[in-house]
Amino acid sequence: MGPFSKESCDQINRLLIRTASNAYFAQLMSVISLPDRNETLRDAVETVWYFIGEVEDVGELKYERKKAKVHTVLDGINDDEVFAEVKVRRGQSAETSKSIKHAEMETLIASKDELGDDKPDGNFFARNLPRDCWDAPWMSQVERVVLVHRLREVMAQAGFTRFEAVSPDIDGELEMGVQRAALAREITWLPAIEKRGEGIFIQFRKDAVEQWASRQDLIARGTRLLAGYEAWKGEYSGAHKKVVEAGGLLPYVLFHSFSHLLVTAVSLECGYPASSIRERIYTIPDVGYGILLYTGTSDAEGTLGGLVQVGRRIHEHIHNALEMGELCSNDSVCAQHEPANQHERRFLHGAACHGCLLISETYCEQHNEFLDRALVVPTVDHLGIEFFSLRGS
Question: Which contacts qualify for 54-57: CB closer than 8 Å, 24 or more apart?
């Protein structure tokens, strides 16, 4: 085929101005640098192998853990994890790979309690905030608050897209099957940066989330959100979102929307603008549900501790966030928005707009998609499907 011959193509041409804001979207991959929990587990099992090497089930393991040395070494590691590692060492099962967010959340929820004046060190340092510091009526759905004094984020650019931004999927992995432009003909390295910072992790009660997600009125709301998703798919032939296809739409939209409300509330006092606070949403049924708000800079010293200090009064900020979310300056139009509305063309939004939930797109892990504050708090539409409640507060 000659250099000027035409190639057949079934794609429709689309006009794009060179300086348009949708001419270039970087596709980024972000990972929080955390200590290898598997390595910690392997070392612990190795230390007490003499005692637990022959256990046949979790019941026998629990008996061995009553011994002082075993209890001390395995403190903070649950029985199922220990027994799984024992079977791996005996060749009875293979190690299973985990998604990025799966590994991150396991490490976050395994954080130790604060002890006196702990001195943060290393690339990662996190401590549980005692419950009596944040307990309140509106916090009944919260299981754990973790102050992440130090963290390190590594971010690499894998490629870029036109017209539409593409984010990693809900597991933190690159969305597979997405057509993106490569950075070079032959890729041998990727441009990357590292940031050092701090954050707040909030874990929610798994039983409360599952009970909420099974309500019939909530399922009806989910049907309306899915109708918007189907309309979006009609606009982008062959496109899909794993957050929907994996069946975890409602919990993800709930905590993603709550995260945006909390970012706005926290930014008023922590010293960082909302555009500097990033989010990571964890909806992993096998592990749990939670959100991580964090910030970082490329400076070697990292950040100044403002977000951690705000975390010590997180119950107050959650109260403010929930209160702000009940009303929007665009209500009742915002609260009564139908996702599948072909005129508004906001297919991946429920009750969400620039007046309430939308924040800086570059710091939102889904580029301001999959948002609905009706799942978080009561709205003027009076659906009664909210997860949080300020009654009695």
Answer: 55/83, 55/86, 57/83
The set of residues, in sequence order, having a beta carbon less than 8 Å from that of 49 and lying 6+ positions away, is 89
Q: Residue 293's beta-bridge partner residues? A: 200, 279
| Cα–Cα distance for residue pair 314/117, rounded to 1 Å | 20
Q: What is the mean pLDDT of residues 242-261?
A: 85
Tokens of 278: 């990033």
- Which stretch of 11-20, 74-83, 167-176 has the lowest confidence by average pLDDT? 167-176
Contact of 257 with 373, CB cutoff 8 Å: yes
CA distances from 357 to 265, 303, 319, 364, 372 (A): 11, 26, 16, 11, 8
- Mean of the pLDDT values across residues 11-19? 76
End-to-end CA distance of the chain: 74
Whether 312 and 129 have beta carbons less than 8 Å apart is answered as yes
Q: What is the mean pLDDT of residues 351-373?
A: 88
Backbone φ/ψ region at 359: left (φ over 0), alpha (ψ -120 to 50), beta: beta
Torsion over CA of 61, 62, 67 and 71, rounded to 10 degrees?
Answer: 100
Instruction: Give the single-character DSSP code of 163.
Output: S
Check whether 200 has a pLDDT greater than 60: yes
177, pLDDT greater than 50: no
Q: Are 311 and 200 in contact (CB under 8 A)?
A: yes
For residue 352, give Cα distances in angstroms to 143, 265, 334.
Answer: 27, 16, 6
Evaluate whether 390 touches 319 at the Cβ level (below 8 Å). yes
Rounded to whole angstroms, how far apart are CA atoms 350 and 244? 14
Which one, of 232, 244, 235, lies nearest residue 347 by Cα?
232
At residue 145, does pLDDT exceed 90? yes
Burial class (CB in 10 A: 0-12, 13-18, 19+), 161: middle
